[in-house]
Amino acid sequence: MLKVSKIIVLLITFVYILTGCTTDSKNIDDQAYAIMVGIDKGVENKIRLTVQFPTYKGGGNGSSSGAGGGGGGSEEKESGQIGGTVVTSIECSTVLEGINLLSTSTTRHISLFHCKAIIFSEQLAYEGINFYLSDFARFRETRRIATIGVCRGKAEDYIMENKTLIGENISKSIELSFAQSKNSGLFPLVGFTNFYKSTISPYSQAYSVYMGINNFKKLENENKGQNPPLKTDEQYYPGEVPKKGNKKQEMIGTAVFNGDKLTGTLNADETRYFLMIVNEFKHGILTVEDKKHPGMAIPFDLRPGRKSDIKVRFDKSTPVIDINLNIEADIVGIQSGMHYESLDKIKELNGLLKGCIEDEVRKTVEKVQKQMGTDIFGFGYYAASKFLTIDDFEKYNWVSHFIDAKINVSVYTNVRRTGLMAESMPVRYRTKTAK
Amino acid sequence: MIKEGKFGTAEATYLITLVIASKTFYTSIRVMIKNTGTAAWYMTLVSCLVSIIFFLLISLVMKRFPGKNLVDIFQLVTGRFFGKILTLVFSAYYVYYAGSSLREFLEMIKAYNLPYTPPSLIIFAFMAVVIILAYIGLESIARLASVSFYPIFIGIALILFLAYPYYNVRAIFPIGGYGIEETIKSGFFRSSAYDEVIILAFIINSIDGVKTFKKVGIYSILISGVAVVFTCLCNIMAFDYTMASENVSDLFQLARVIYFSRFFQRIESIFLFIWIIASLITVGLAFYIAISIFCKAFKISNHRPLILQFAFLTFMVTLLPEGLIELAKINIVVMREYSMIIIYGIPILVLIISVIFGKRGDRQCLKSVK
Hints:
Shape of chain B: globular
Oligomer: heterodimer
Order of helices and strands of chain A: HEEEHEEHEEHHEHHHEEEHEEEEHHHHE
Region (Disordered) (chain A): 60-80
Distance between the termini of chain B: 19 Å
Number of strands of chain A: 16
Main location (chain A): membrane
Family (chain A): Belongs to the GerABKC lipoprotein family.
Largest sheet of chain B: 2 strands, antiparallel
Number of domains of chain B: 1
Radius of gyration of chain A: 27 Å
Helix content of chain A: 25-40%
Number of strands of chain B: 2
Number of domains of chain A: 2
CATH architecture of chain B: Up-down Bundle
CATH class of chain B: Mainly Alpha
Radius of gyration of chain B: 20 Å
Subcellular location (chain A): Membrane
Number of helices of chain B: 15
Largest sheet of chain A: 9 strands, mixed
Keywords (chain A): Germination, Lipoprotein, Membrane, Palmitate, Signal
CATH topology of chain B: Amino acid/polyamine transporter I
């Protein structure tokens, strides 16, 4: 009998403990999971915090049906309902206080466990963002895998446009849109961990994706009667791509930091070459003008042949940095129809590509080095091996010397394949009629 | 005399290795990187080396008194009164060790997983398991360790492997850390983090004598040393020495940031599983050893009636620090940087006394072994 009573007491004890009768037990359904957080400079307080979370309605994953951004009813718009999500903004002194305050008007606890992105406005980023980053770094709900971005304009406006046009799941949509970095090579993908690490690192400085809103005003509607020139460069910043339709959100370019302060930005082209140096370039299309046929383009599908080979040495106390890139390319089009697929012509193409990439890489490094005075390439990691102790390295102050560093760039290109065509046949009757 | 059962070389190695290597889950890695920077990973090799040297010295004591555990040796060399006092110092230390380790576990689980759960509830739940472990005895703890050893080490290896996208090998430079002097100094004192190997001297009769004792001790130090080296290296490569000095638990942080795709992320549940089992074995063994030493000193044949009393003492120690800061600055520093003074110092002192006074195990001792 005593044994039975002991077992009952034990069972009751364990039922109490194991069923999670504690203040930490939370049902998944009891929480609203913030998927995007934006931080702007406040008007009457330090910051304006914008949080977006799904409403679990219409398919449960933030369906784009209904409001569709600005298209919903006025009541929905007022309550911030955007494509199956709620976007809410608040002025507050700190991020976590803001979320706490938002709980007063939300039916569920706002959780940061599944936050996909933290976006800072450009204005705030110029003033320094470590005050807000450290909140996220310390708070246990943030997992440090959220993507960090800097928004041209207001972060609030960017989040207001965050909806999915393809598929219903907004979380999936956000993650896949960030993964486009690997397909285009026109913006970097930086998670919280690496970003935060770089803000406190003596080796390397931080960078993040540069994003903004495109109002579709860059696309000229009328033909001015002239043949348009061939523009192969992609010197676009967010909001400047000449396009119409699709999402207004645009991620293009790189936000460059010194410490925790934004010091400048790289456009799409520069970002591509920057990513090549830091081994983050996976592949992307680069269009080069055909020198033998001006006005005609040759697009290449580029990918890294090998990891970039970087060496840092010192000439007295001045650093000398050798950057060797190995880039492979496939021809994906020859507009002129010229037979570039022969051995000697391939060499010409290699030369053309090498010259183009080498020149642009050099310009990009110089821009970051001289204009922004920061090392987002992580050359400091290579320089560190020349020092014996951390004290020596910190005393040397790598970033201050990097500004004066001599940079040597060498690019090896190899046009490997010619797509699905082994040879180009010229168009026969372009200028005269067939008889 | 208390009956502790017998277990093999492998089980003893698993047990001691787990107890030593469980520190990788806690604040140890952070403190090592904070003190020695990029040199932390080889600083721990210095600690291993120092520990092996001290351990070999202690094995000389054990060799002089075959068939005797350290409690008996203390009494044979210094007399019953001083022997008991020395033994009580060890017993008190292991109560302190168990309580502080439990508090470290509590602080971490509150920081990462259960911030609002009352601490007493966590302590009670944890202590309940520890009491059961102590109740069923040393042999069962060793068997549990041998069953858990591979899952725990595979779990650690998995976390370290899956975090490789964060690694930058060049972050281990400047290779000298904060200087060779600081590295050697820290390495010497951090040998305290390996001093759980002394437990073997108290349970020598369960592991078949001095030869096994020596083998198990050296293997345990080396295997746990390798685990600490790799954990340190991976954390330095992932977070640089700067950020790695900030995290409460570097290994937990590493597990939290693993991200491969939408479908493969948030795998720290592996960490939780292995961390809790390793912590239970560590605290369970320390708790048991504290009781066992006490029983051996006072010739108590059954340790079970003492379990609740010692559980109360451990609970008190757990509640001593005000918070994480006090725990990290006092308890953990004592355990992992200065405990060697007692743990290695006392047996070596006893060795010196026994050499000076020509004391060694008698024929009866040898006979009892044979």
